[in-house]
Write a structure and sequence with these properties.
155 residues, mainly beta, 8-stranded mixed sheet, 13% helix, globular
Length: 155
């Protein structure tokens, strides 16, 4: 039997011109803010993780200045890259090293990582790696992690 490395969808990430407005909007849809952090080395002044009501998925929200991996395209040759709000998709994995090898094996391009990051207070240690998928989508692989205010029963 083949080991199941890819567990399921973890979160999508987005950038927004008004972080608080987005937080308020998703709270109104039943999401809860479960973590907040800054990463100055990546231009991230403030980021939040919002957990869905079913406790099985999250939305990661950044301000527009965040220097995070994103898909995009030039509008015309020589023009700046055009990007939308969606930054990347993230898949939870059971074994980051094996999952990194497998995603490249099936056609993804390695962008960076694996790396360990400490996010917020209380600090949450995450292990991740970033890839580009076949359609240009940015894919984050994330070793299973729990956030301090995740609800009981969370994956």
């Amino acid at each position: 039997m083949t080991e199941q490395l890819f567990v399921g969808f973890h979160h999508f990430a987005m950038r927004t011109p008004d972080l608080q407005r987005s937080i308020t909007f998703y709270e109104a849809l039943g999401f809860r803010q479960v973590h907040e952090w800054t990463l100055p080395d990546y231009g991230i002044d403030r980021a939040v993780m919002m957990q869905a009501a079913d406790t099985k998925s999250w939305i990661e929200i950044f301000d527009l200045k965040a220097g995070i991996p994103m898909q995009g395209r030039g509008a015309k040759v020589g023009q700046a890259i055009v990007t939308g709000a969606l930054a990347h998709i993230c898949l939870t994995v059971n074994d980051l090293e094996k999952a990194c090898a497998r995603i490249v094996e099936v056609g993804a391009t390695h962008l960076y990582g694996p790396e360990n990051l400490g996010l917020g207070q209380p600090e949450v240690s995450v292990q991740n790696a970033i890839f580009e998928g076949p359609a240009g989508e940015v894919i984050e692989l994330l070793q299973h992690v729990r956030f301090p205010r995740d609800l009981p029963g969370s994956v």
